[in-house]
Design a protein that fits this description.
With 50 residues, this protein is mainly alpha-helical. It has one domain (16-50). It is 66% helix and 0% strand. It is built from four helices and no strands. It has helices at 2-6, 15-31, 34-39, 45-49. The longest helix is centred in the middle third of the chain and has 17 residues, at 15-31.
Length: 50
Amino acid sequence: MAARVSARDWKGLKLGAAVGIELQKYIRHSYTNYDKLLLSRMMTREEARG
């Protein structure tokens, strides 16, 4: 997680917020069907995130 956060320029965003964003992305892609739903075109990006 530290490598993901440090690899980006967060444009003034606080460290806690940056870690939260990366953690949300990690969980979304690792523990949900998010990618499968997008690839099957059954849902929009917003619907798959909900």
